[in-house]
Automatic annotation (TrEMBL):
Domain of life: Bacteria
Region Disordered, residue ranges: 414-512
Domain Glycosyltransferase 2-like: 28-192
Taxonomic placement: Bacteria, Bacillati, Actinomycetota, Actinomycetes, Kitasatosporales
Compositionally biased tracts (Low complexity): 428-472
Keywords of this entry: Endoplasmic reticulum, Glycosyltransferase, Membrane, Signal-anchor, Transferase, Transmembrane, Transmembrane helix
Gene3D superfamilies in the cross-refs: Spore Coat Polysaccharide Biosynthesis Protein SpsA, Chain A (3.90.550.10)
EC primary class: transferase
Protein name: dolichyl-phosphate beta-glucosyltransferase
Localization, UniProt: Endoplasmic reticulum membrane; Membrane
UniProt domain GtrA/DPMS transmembrane: residue ranges: 292-409
Length: 512
């Protein structure tokens, strides 16, 4: 895996304008596989809900995952009959593959998806996408495990779901509560940067996307949902769980080795007071001090243990030198990764060489303190030696931090300032068969592919298709191509109607 991938930075979040000319604000993807019976009522119910409650223009995209029954015919018919519906046909299965294909080709600024069974109450859809429209958050997920969620499902699925999320918290330090709820949304500008880093094309796609977003410091909004499990679900639990565990291991290994350039996805939050520059205070100094102190404390303990072990078999000076050498290599590596957030192997040898120079300065300081102690007392106690070395190491630690920041890792800030935005250069990261790494040309305007799609013409838009027929267009998993001419402006939708007071039968726990 290459570690020199440059993903650029994300733009500052902005509230989407109320009138998004000619383009839907929301694109809801419904991945399906052999769902000819449930697809039609699902899409009609979703369309009716969005028409009645959603104040922006929207689109519903049916992503057919190589269905072998009548699902493609149903999807094409729905796209022909309903203006806001389109269908996409993929010849290979995989929920992640379907989402990657449609999201990469979509022109909507907010992208979402939901399961075809509509297990999630649709009243949670607007709260899900509202933080993305307003610019508050980067991603949003529905959660069945957060406080306030109301869920109806069997004990087996409940235990598996909670166990899986505990594994994520323990192994990948995930802080989101529900990785596999089929109800998520993401801003398109975030998706364009994150999707090339996501390797999985199946059920682990959601988890990998969320883990990478969280590690990149992006904001994830959670919405507690009302959820009624579908007893006829075709998901193979054991096989899916095994694939998810393999994905956890793969992502954990990539994060541990620094193969992912997530530190380069920093977003310039214009409204975050923590990111405002203060006079005479270098950016990131407080965080670096905390990290360096933590590493320094552990390094000092490690050094004292090594010194005590070496001192039992050799003299004080040699024990001090050996202990300093081993602990300094570990200290430089830890500060490189944790304090100054340098990932990958680029420059590692140079950093270690410079760290050894800093070690020599520390060695001179500590050895000088021991020589001064020997001069003052011909036979000092072991405890006195340790006390003198602790004081000398504290002084050496302060000097080490200053040298690390001003010399060893001084190019870190310059590298950040020199990062190139892929939207300006036309280069974005690409996912390769061997894992994370590589670069590829940035996708052009959303559009065409080897997978056949059917999309009806919008109001006022020119179309070459005969009356009553859907205007065909294509989209590709490998990369989008130019879309047809931009349609006319879609009239603004009426304001949100007031939501009626909840009734007793609104609780999903009483519906089945």
């Amino acid at each position: 895996m290459r570690s020199d991938l440059c993903s650029g930075t994300l733009p500052a979040r902005k509230h989407l304008p109320a009138a998004w000319a000619g383009t839907p604000v929301l694109d809801v993807v419904v991945p399906v596989f052999n769902e000819e019976d449930d697809l039609r009522p699902c899409v009609r119910r979703l369309h009716e809900h969005l028409t009645r409650t959603f104040p922006y223009a929207f689109r519903i995209t049916i992503a057919d995952n190589a269905s072998t029954d009548g699902t493609p015919a149903v999807a094409t018919d729905l796209a022909r009959r309903i203006e806001e519906v389109r269908s996409v046909r993929l010849e290979r299965k995989g929920r992640g593959r379907a989402l990657r294909t449609v999201w990469s080709a979509s022109d909507a600024p907010v992208l979402a998806y939901m399961d075809v069974d509509l297990s999630t109450d649709l009243n949670a859809l607007l709260p899900l996408v509202a933080p993305l429209i307003s610019g508050h958050s980067d991603l949003a997920i529905g959660s069945r495990l957060s406080r306030g969620a109301r869920v109806v499902r069997g004990a087996k699925r409940e235990v598996i779901s909670r166990g899986y999320n505990l594994i994520l918290r323990g192994s990948l330090q995930a802080r989101f509560s529900d990785a596999q709820c089929g109800f998520k949304a993401i801003r398109r500008d975030v998706a364009q940067v994150l999707l090339p880093l996501v390797e999985d094309s199946g059920w682990f796609f959601d988890t990998e996307l969320l883990v990478l977003a969280e590690r990149a410091g992006l904001r994830i909004h959670e919405v507690p949902v009302d959820w009624v499990d579908d007893p006829d679900s075709t998901v193979h639990i054991v096989r899916t769980a095994a694939e998810d565990l393999k994905g956890v291991w793969r992502v954990g290994r990539a994060l541990a080795t620094g193969a992912l350039p997530l530190d380069r996805l920093a977003r310039p939050f214009g409204d975050d007071p923590r990111d405002r520059g203060l006079a005479d205070v270098p950016r990131g100094l407080a965080r670096q001090l905390v990290g360096f102190c933590a590493v320094g404390v552990l390094s000092t303990v490690f050094y004292l243990l090594l010194y005590s072990a070496f001192r039992a078999v050799t003299g004080a000076q040699l024990a001090n030198g050996l202990a300093l050498l081993v602990s300094a290599v570990a200290n430089t590596a830890a500060n490189r990764r944790l304090t100054f957030r340098v990932r990958g192997r680029g420059g590692m040898v140079r950093h270690q060489a410079q760290g050894l120079v800093v070690l020599a300065i520390g060695l001179a300081l500590t050895s000088g303190s021991l020589a001064a102690l020997d001069t003052a007392s011909s036979d000092p106690a072991r405890s006195t030696e340790l006390a003198v070395l602790v004081a000398a190491n504290l002084a050496a630690t302060v000097l080490r931090f200053l040298l690390f920041r001003a010399w060893v890792f001084a190019d870190r800030g310059q590298a950040r300032a020199g990062d190139t935005d892929p939207r300006q250069t036309g280069v974005t990261p690409a996912r390769t068969a061997t894992g994370y790494g590589a670069t590829a040309p940035a996708p052009g305007p959303p559009g065409a592919s080897s997978a056949t799609q059917a999309a009806p013409p919008r109001r006022g838009a020119a179309s070459a298709a005969p009356p009553g027929r859907a205007a065909p267009w294509t989209a590709s998993e490998a990369g989008p191509a130019p879309r047809p001419d931009t349609p006319a402006v879609t009239p603004a939708r009426p304001p949100l109607p007031s939501r009626p007071a909840p009734q007793a039968d609104d609780d999903p726990r009483t519906t089945r």
